[in-house]
Design brief:
- By secondary structure, the protein is of the alpha/beta class.
- The protein has 6 helices and 4 strands; from the N terminus they run E-H-E-H-H-E-H-E-H-H.
- The chain has a 4-stranded parallel sheet.
- The chain starts with 11 loop residues before the first strand and ends with a helix.
Length: 126
Amino acid sequence: MLADSPGGTPEVILIASGSELSLAVEAHGKLLAEGVRSRVVSMPSWEIFDRQAQEYRDSVLPPAVKARVAVEQASTFGWERYVGGSGHVIGMRTFGASAPLRALQEKFGFEPERVVAAAKELLGKQ
């Protein structure tokens, strides 16, 4: 875990790796400010995470917490195993484009506000 909310089990889990972690951390701060308990999980390696004991994996991604948002600026392929059937993956579903990074992030929704909106939608707090 990279960041957790004080006061118990999170309502929503934000999962990211690499440069996407800053988006998740910023969204986490915004959610906490709105009274939403969130957790940020850094997932740099699916393979290493999957080799851990089930008890550890469940402590990081509690099965009871179904509201999960993964952020990946590359393909969304594979993230469904961590967000589950009721989670959401913010990622590329098409080929990219050429432009300055900030313009591309805005165009494709890689912004903290989009992560917050996805989390709140999953929680029914839109």
